[in-house]
């Protein structure tokens, strides 16, 4: 499957902690993420961007409200159905997770394998993404042997090489120089052309500029929504 999914959030609320420590990170988020559009979530640090991306990415069950993938709530799916859906979601978070004993390439293969996509087509896709993002020569290195920015780009290759229908990237251009950020934008524009559903959080004005739809968050609430997010 390569086309994107329609993701619709209804009154999505996420609270962390319990008792006196209970805090609302996301409040009543209503919005959608649609195929062939780059949807950007931005706002100050702590405004709930990562929380929203995790909830949309099926990694954090909302306290209230719903996420719908083509009309179905992943948090109510049977395990097998949820695992199949997760194979079609490529996520890269701010602090990338790698197995430290493995090379970058082995880490990429690990992700492909766990998605049932360890084949030539996906290996080639990984190589071409690595080339596009300027890290192909580093694939034989271990995570500790490359810079933070290089690791960030490797993590984006890792999440995209399985050719997911839904792409969720948390601050993909953070800590990157202008040239690397531009390459990430080009990758995102290519994914948009392919009709993927693209969800990105950022502080980067350039990324906000190329977005089709934007949600600005403040204290866990949407304070401004722009673009056509209708389905
Ligand atoms: N696991 C957690 N337990 C308790 N509180 C949390 C947890 N994760 C996040 N928070 C809190 O929830 C709020 C939203 O955090 P979140 O990481 O979603 O913000 P953000 O907009 O992504 O911030 P940044 O731009 O700094 O990455 C913050 O107040 C944060 O301290």
Automatic annotation (TrEMBL):
GO molecular function, one term: ATP binding
Record Pfam families: ABC_tran (PF00005)
Residue ranges the record marks as coiled coil: none
Lineage top rank: taxon: Archaea
Keywords in alphabetical order: ATP-binding, Nucleotide-binding
Residues of the ABC transporter domain: 7-231
Transcription regulation is among the record's keywords: no
One GO CC term, this protein: plasma membrane
Protein name: ATP-binding cassette domain-containing protein
Organism expressing this protein natively: Thermococcus waiotapuensis
Lineage: Archaea, Methanobacteriati, Methanobacteriota, Thermococci, Thermococcales
């Amino acid at each position: 499957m390569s086309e994107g999914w329609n993701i619709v959030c209804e009154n999505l609320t996420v609270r962390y902690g319990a008792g006196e420590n209970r805090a609302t990170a996301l409040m009543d988020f209503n919005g959608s993420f649609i195929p062939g559009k780059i949807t950007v979530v931005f706002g100050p640090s702590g405004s709930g961007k990562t929380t929203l991306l995790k909830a949309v990415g099926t990694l954090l069950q909302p306290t209230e409200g719903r996420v719908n993938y083509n009309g179905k709530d992943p948090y109510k799916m049977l395990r097998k159905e949820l695992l199949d859906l997760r194979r079609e979601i490529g996520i890269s978070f701010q602090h990338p997770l790698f197995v430290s004993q493995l090379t970058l390439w082995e880490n990429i293969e690990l992700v492909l394998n766990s998605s049932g996509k360890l084949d030539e087509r996906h290996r080639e896709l990984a190589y071409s993404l690595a080339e596009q993002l300027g890290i192909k020569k580093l694939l034989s290195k271990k995570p500790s042997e490359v810079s933070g920015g290089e690791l960030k780009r490797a993590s984006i290759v890792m999440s995209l090489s399985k050719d997911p229908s839904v792409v969720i990237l948390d601050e993909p251009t953070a800590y990157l120089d202008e040239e690397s950020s531009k390459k990430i934008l080009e990758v995102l524009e290519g994914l948009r052309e392919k009709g993927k559903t693209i969800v990105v959080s950022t502080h980067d004005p350039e990324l906000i500029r190329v977005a089709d739809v934007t949600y600005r968050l403040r204290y866990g609430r949407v304070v401004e929504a722009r673009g056509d997010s209708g389905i």
